[in-house]
Amino acid sequence: MTDTSPISLPAIAILGAGSMGRAILSGLLAPTVDVSGGIRVTNRSAVRAAEFAEVDAVTAWATDDDPEANRRAVAGASIVLVAVKPPMVPALLDEIADALEPGAIVVSVAAGVTVATFEQRLPEAVAVLRSMPNTPAIVGSAVTGLSAGTRSTAEQLALVTRVFETVGEVVVVPEDKLDALSTISGSGPAYVFFLIEQLTAVAVEKGFTAEEAAVLVNGTFLGASQLLAASTSTPSELRRQVTSPNGTTERAIAVLQDGGVDELFARATDAALARARELAAG
Question: Which residues are listed for NADP(+) binding in this entry (predicted)?
């Protein structure tokens, strides 16, 4: 969470307690968050559902054991987060449509599944929003893109924003920008990890052990990120502070620029965007 101010939320259901669903749940269970009416969670496995048995604020059901699990979870819930895998979404929406409370807010957490898909399958009295959180939600450092639907209000958007603020920062954008956002913040952690992989391999090639390389590279990325977060300077300004004229870093940056890194990132994100649109089109 980025703020320690108390957050009060109504009853919430999370359909699909996979990694992202659980990450959001961890934010909702923070000491500064009060979810009146409790949190309802569903997943397939009874073993996974049993993991919540000792969590007072959570009621969990397994769909393998209880065919009505999803409908039980949404009954009385003011906010419903749909966090199942994208191909499962249409059938799930058909399953819960008539069990939702009038005025409930249903939020897509499924990559590539549009507001239109939700609104076509859910009653008019149900509001829909679409979200794109990223995996740092697991450690409370997410960046979540959030888009309103055609029948959601400003108050409902603000309420769902507070939900995702329990696991990090929220950027509200029109839905037509959400796929592009997914290529930056959604896929972004993978780009960072890929760069770490590559620099670690280079360190090993230069004679460091794998353990030493991990300390050098992981620590450098973490330190640089923390410096950026703590600084009022832009990334460009911070880079220039490290890059002495005619020094070693300047020579390295020149090689990266000559190699077309800027164009490479543009091509990579364009490819991700094209795939996101393919997924959205079904």
Answer: 15-20, 83-86
